[in-house]
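Long-time lurker. I teach an intro course on protein structure, and each term I like to show students one example going from raw sequence to a predicted 3D structure in token notation. This year I'd like something fresh instead of my usual example. Would anyone be willing to generate the tokens for the chain below so I can use it in lecture? Attribution to the forum is fine with me.
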Amino acid sequence: MNTFRRRDGKVAIHDRGSTNIGVRKFDDDAGQGRDDDFGNDLTFSEQYEGGPKFDDFFVDPSTFDEPLTGRPKVAIEGAFKTPGLRNVELTGPYMHNGGFATLRQVVDFFDRGGDFAEENVDFLHPAIGDLYLSDYEKDALVSFMLSLTDERVRFHKAPFDHPQIFVPMGHTGDHTYVIDDGLGQAVTDLAEVPAVGRFGYKTLPDILRPFEQQLGLTQFDGTPGTGDHADLAIFNRFSDTEGATIGDAILVEIQVTNSGPGNAPSVIVTDDLPASLVFGEGTEVYSQGNVFLTNGKVTWEVGELWPGEMAMLSFRATVQYPYYGTVTNTAEVKHGSAVVDRFPTNNTSTASFEALIPQQFPAKVQIQAGTFWRDEAGNVHPVVGTYNRGVYRGIPPGQTSVQLWVEANAGLPEPVIVNDAITTASNDVFIATWGYEGIYRSTDGGRTWSGMIFEDETGLSTGHYIVYAIEEGPDGTLYASADRGRIFRSLNGGETWHLAGELPGASSDVTWALASHPTKRGVVFAGTFGNGVYATDNFGLTWSRLEGKGLADDGRIQVFDLEFDPATPDKPTLWAATARGVYRSMDLGGNWQELNGGLFPFREARSLAFHPGEEGPLFVAVWGGGVYKLTNRKYNTVWEYVNLDGANVTTVFYEPWSGNLAAGTDGLGLTFMSVGAYATDTEPEAAGAELPVTMALAQN
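-- Reply from a regular --
Happy to contribute to a lecture. Here you go:
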């Protein structure tokens, strides 16, 4: 309840939300002042003032607008509930008796102070009185109320869609008689409101035909009526721009909406891409219509947009060399018909972002490991981890005479030592680090990183881990070797890691390399620093040391890299890069063949990289000797010199899409060599395809 002061100065009490505004005389239509069939008061005010109290309620007089100094007057006669204004355009005719057909008539009613103010003076709300509004002010009030319409409600769109509904529409008969249903009751006429799906009505149902003008539904007739204008608005933006530079495919998102109330039968969006961006064909995703590319201009023929409807387009656009710094893009929407747009100022939208400026690789920085990552638009980026300088991402090779790089340490601690890097079949990049969380993952090719959660013998932890190597099995299981000989495993793509087992023996504390069997799940091999090779066949739970016949030092050798030949998964061949050269095993590590011809006197082999062809070359990174290859690894046993004579080469890894071999060094950056692409047809492989990308690990 609440109080107000009447025109005569006396305080009156009434139910909150119910007022007499002078629509009818109070004694013609008592409204909430009526009694029930038993003569009982229906309002809280009357019960509070002294009538029998049927409802359990508590009143705090301190909340009243006007203080009570005596017995209040009850001002409930002729009062009706006051509705809200949301969607008021759709709720006519107006007032409790449907006395006004339009909102302008309602405004005129309030402007003149009601119709029966004098007759209702003892019950009338004090806000009712002459307002003396101008026509402009009246129109402004009507426009404000029209702006409160939710177009989804107007057209019964989700979440206001509904099943078939039958609405009572009086009784069969006329003003003189009705038809008896046989039980002494009048037969009720029912009108059907047809079922409607989440996109709303496309054809106006018969029950709404008499109200199409009033409800603003004239566009269903096929031709816009007076005042029935569409209002197209466009919004565009760049997404996932953090850490972006030349060669990155940025996500462009465009949203176009018809805010109505008129229909837009032919909508066209154009995006004339700047010279700094190139459209990534095949990356476009759109909710309706068709998309075309002509001379760098993206044209999206959206088609028809009903009032309240929205359409979306997204595509990738690659930042081109030599553009960097601020990249700006403008999209425009227009009508392909004679429909008038009420607000053309929202027909264009401009977005921008900052592309990082690439630099040459810093001098005297040791590259520890590397991988290639391919985005949705087919751009290939090298990602390398360093000793104490974190991660660097390169622009796609071949765009400049000198390879350019940007730092890619967003989400990484500083300083960080990277021991290993891989790109998984799901196109995520993982790095193994010395300390901190131990493993970090990037879903955007190294632009941003997030640390992983470990579960070890002490429970869940994000504590200090030294992780040496990461490997992916044929079933997607990820393995990681850590300090104290521990092997961790992830079954959910790297989200969480739990302790699988430990390598026995103190001399197997440092596990430099891991290699998964190419076809058998749970079979993994581990190369250690000084204690040879171990194997497990139960997903890392237990490990046994292989005898390693043929390996130097009775098998107790420093293993830097272990790799299975990707070309022969059915006849697995295991290769090892060690401190005493390169070895090959045809029986899963039982017996080894030394293959060091041509490497003398440089035998410290750090990393291996395979061309995917069975008779293709095998490359090895040699500390102090450069890069060597077996031209045909199936038949050749003597290594040939390739590049970087005398350099301390720490890692080699192969990029199959264009045939680049990358070699990381101790202080000389990354060198690219074209060694031949691997493809069976002219179509490029999809990003994330299971093509082998060999990683490497360098001794710290």
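Some talking points for your students: Confidence is low (pLDDT under 50) at residues 221-227, 679-700. The longest strand covers residues 325-335.
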